[in-house]
């Protein structure tokens, strides 16, 4: 296909995908496409999107980015990308000083003089920061130096877990990322896959892995960041539509009284969703003691008290490197666990789970399944490829999994994996792959005993 033909093809993909998106919004309960100026949630905002709509959005994102990169001067495109760090810094300022909360006092818009007074920031500087964000469609400038929340910024109010997620990424993640080159160049740390020899370790100067830092036993700052991370993971699950596992996996077929063990489940975001939708399931949440105490004493009594009252949830601390989960559960569910660790530790975790399994137990691993960026013949691909001339992995439309892959390198010296990587880990731990479930952004890899 010629370069000119590629441009026309990309434009056609965008047009066709936009029609699909419009159709889905018109079928929604409120029958409208939301404006960026809206601050009230749209019914589709919290729904699990069906495959057609999700694919259309991925196509628009990927094709728009590819079209822009194709037509603009290369230097123009690259310099803009170099400067995305400043957007991250501005988001950190907005979340740290709770600017969205302040703007809620005047939904019609607030002058920077008042924003500065309420936030304790210099008014001209906060105005420049908000203008930079508004230019990227987060906040809006109603009139000169008067700003208001919009569809994106309203999600950064401090009561929304997404604010905690924003602070995690724009604080420890960004500061650690600045040290990635330095870490890779280190003769000892560069080739290492130890979770204690990564950019995050270099930033915090804490000699142990990130999750021990987050436990906060000897670092109050680590404890603060760990609690924030735990809340942020609730928003991460929503953003990545991790809840698709609730509707797409046949939990009801497990039978009344079946036991599901959420291994390393943090404060139990997915487990809470299971508790609400499938009241006949018995649930066990297992993680490090600090997270289990946070879940048991703070989160579940507020978010899912009925499961506690009906004794359907059991909170059990675990160190999954030295202990096996509760024995004999029907399902052992691990979401975003395997990607936290190098292969040798993943095999330890899965081997510990295997020891706890009964004859009919199964293991469910919900994570990204990386796709290659090169196109192969369709009969040689085990994952659906995007239509040409898009990159076969949808490019920017699925960029988050590749960003997270690098984030895992920075924070934990770990990685996201392709399907062959999951199969190899399972086989080494003595498990047999049963099925790969397509849940949209995340995949679900099911293992059983041989």
TrEMBL record:
InterPro entries: COMT-like (IPR016461), COMT_C (IPR001077), COMT_dimerisation (IPR012967), SAM-dependent_MTases_sf (IPR029063), WH-like_DNA-bd_sf (IPR036388), WH_DNA-bd_sf (IPR036390). GO terms for biological process: methylation. SUPFAM superfamilies: S-adenosyl-L-methionine-dependent methyltransferases, Winged helix' DNA-binding domain. One of its GO terms (molecular function) is protein dimerization activity. Residues 88-159 form the O-methyltransferase dimerisation domain. Keywords: Methyltransferase, S-adenosyl-L-methionine, Transferase. PROSITE patterns: SAM_OMT_II. Signal peptide: none annotated. Residues 254-379 form the O-methyltransferase C-terminal domain. It comes from the Eukaryota. PANTHER family: O-METHYLTRANSFERASE CICE, PUTATIVE (AFU_ORTHOLOGUE AFUA_4G14580)-RELATED. This is S-adenosyl-L-methionine-dependent methyltransferase. It comes from Crucibulum laeve.
């Amino acid at each position: 296909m010629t370069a000119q033909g590629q441009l026309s093809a990309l434009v056609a993909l965008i047009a066709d995908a936009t029609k699909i998106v419009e159709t889905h919004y018109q079928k929604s309960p409120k029958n409208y496409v939301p404006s960026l100026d809206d601050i009230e949630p749209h019914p589709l905002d919290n729904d699990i999107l069906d495959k057609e709509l999700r694919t259309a959005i991925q196509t628009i994102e990927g094709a728009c980015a590819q079209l822009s990169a194709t037509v603009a001067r290369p230097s123009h495109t690259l310099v803009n990308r170099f400067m995305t760090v400043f957007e991250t810094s501005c988001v950190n300022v907005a979340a740290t000083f709770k600017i969205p909360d302040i703007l809620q006092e005047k939904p019609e818009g607030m002058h920077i003089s008042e924003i500065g007074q309420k936030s304790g920031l210099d008014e001209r500087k906060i105005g420049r920061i908000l203008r930079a964000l508004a230019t990227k469609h987060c906040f809006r400038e109603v009139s000169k130096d008067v700003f208001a929340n919009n569809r994106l910024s309203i999600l950064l109010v401090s009561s929304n877990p997404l604010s905690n997620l924003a602070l995690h990424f724009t604080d420890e993640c960004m500061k650690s990322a600045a040290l990635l080159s330095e870490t890779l160049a280190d003769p000892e740390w560069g080739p290492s896959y130890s979770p204690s020899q990564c950019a995050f370790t270099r930033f915090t100067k804490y000699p142990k892995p990130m999750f021990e830092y987050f436990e906060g036993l000897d670092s109050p700052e680590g404890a603060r960041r760990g609690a924030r991370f735990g809340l942020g993971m609730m928003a991460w699950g929503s953003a990545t539509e991790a809840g698709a596992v609730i509707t797409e996996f046949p939990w009801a077929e497990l039978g009344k009284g079946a036991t599901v063990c959420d291994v390393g489940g943090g404060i139990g975001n997915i487990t809470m969703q299971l508790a609400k939708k499938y009241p006949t399931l018995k649930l066990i949440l297992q993680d490090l003691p600090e997270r289990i105490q946070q879940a048991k004493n703070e989160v579940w009594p507020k978010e899912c008290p009925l499961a506690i009252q009906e004794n359907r949830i059991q909170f059990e601390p675990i160190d999954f490197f030295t202990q096996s989960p509760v024995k004999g559960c029907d399902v052992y569910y691990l979401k975003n666990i395997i990607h936290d660790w190098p292969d040798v530790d993943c095999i330890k975790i899965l081997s510990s789970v295997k020891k706890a399994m009964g004859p009919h137990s199964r293991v469910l691993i919900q994570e990204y399944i990386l796709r290659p960026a090169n196109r192969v013949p369709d009969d040689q691909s085990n994952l659906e490829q995007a239509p040409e001339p898009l990159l076969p992995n949808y490019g920017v439309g699925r960029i988050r999994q590749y960003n997270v892959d690098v984030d895992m390198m920075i924070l934990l010296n770990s990685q996201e994996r392709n399907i062959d990587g999951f199969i190899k880990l399972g086989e080494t731990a003595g498990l047999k792959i049963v099925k790969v479930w397509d849940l949209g952004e995340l995949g679900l890899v099911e293992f059983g005993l041989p």
